[in-house]
Amino acid sequence: MTTEPAAELAACPIGVVPIIWNNVDVPDLREPVPYQEVLDEIRRLGFDGCQFGAGFPEGTNLRAELETRGLRLAEVYAAIPCGVDGPTDGALDEARERLDLLTGAAGEVLVMAGTIVPERSVRSGRADGPDVPKLSEKGWARLAEVIVTVGDQARERGVTAAFHPHTGTFVETPEETATLAKRLRGTSVGICLDTGHYLVGGGDPVKAIRNLADQVLHVHLKDVDRDVLARLRNGDISTFHDALRERIFTELGSGALDLPGVLQALASVDYHGWLMIEQDTSWNPPAEAMAAAKRVLAFALRTLTSPA
To answer: Per the confidence metrics, is the pTM higher than 0.85?
Structure first.
């Protein structure tokens, strides 16, 4: 019989990241899909909400488009320009603009991450090496300062703020994630755990959830193709963007991710936020990939039992 924590996790809203329809990182992979068609497919597939996507309207126009389809704006993604000494000049203003976009459309979570930078993209999946450029002490302090400033403003507006460790950026590896999480503990900003990026960075998402516990405020459920990941790590694939072209992120349940383990861990820490399904690129049509992922997640949630 399902225990109460598992039942609560099964009640979490399930959202989708629409990057699979219109990928801003590798836009030439597919012809652009009109936002109305994207939202119609998201509604048809039965999702509760979505991330703000490429080509979406803003403000009250977006809110109206979502409401007519029974959808919520789960999140807006904010890429913060960042070098080894932390966020660059103007980064705070850029993040605030994304916060305005979120609140202007009655959104719920601001997801912040560093921008993908060439010197880290070429070490994607192998960012723990001694020759990899890393944040300086000044960089760590500046990054925490900027995202907590934005997080405080988000909290004042009644929305959640979380930071997303991401391959190809200065916060990718488990060690880097732990370093930032330590600086964020007790602040207004939590962690958005992306299971795919955490796997690429060399980590175990199940252990991350148990270690971070209540700091995990938002989750992206993303699976990783084992073969493509191996080729990225041994240098056969040069950069993160090249890995995207090889479809390093695969349909949920078909890759290296321990999805049942992740859900068990989330239930054990009483997680009750969004479960966002994400897959940047796919060999299959976007709606097919997302329909398959949603079925896999639904089955995993139905069969979930929390640890005693």
So the answer is: yes
pLDDT tens readout for residues 121-132: 999 999 999 999
Please give the tally of structural domains in the chain. Answer: 1
CA angle 232, 139, 26 (to 5 degrees): 35
Residue 307 resides in a domain: no
Range of the domain at 20: 4-302
Q: For the residues of 216-248, what is the DSSP string, one character each?
A: EEEEEE-EE-HHHHHHHHTTSS-SHHHHHHTT-
Cβ of 185: how many Cβ atoms within 10 Å?
A: 13
Distance CA 207, CA 213 (A): 10
State the CATH number of the domain containing residue 166: 3.20.20.150
Cα gap 148→169, rounded to integer Å: 18
Whether 218 contacts 111, CB under 8 Å: yes
- Would residue 113 count as lying in a domain? yes
Question: Of the candidates 230, 220, 241, which has an alpha carbon nearest to the alpha carbon of residue 167?
Answer: 241
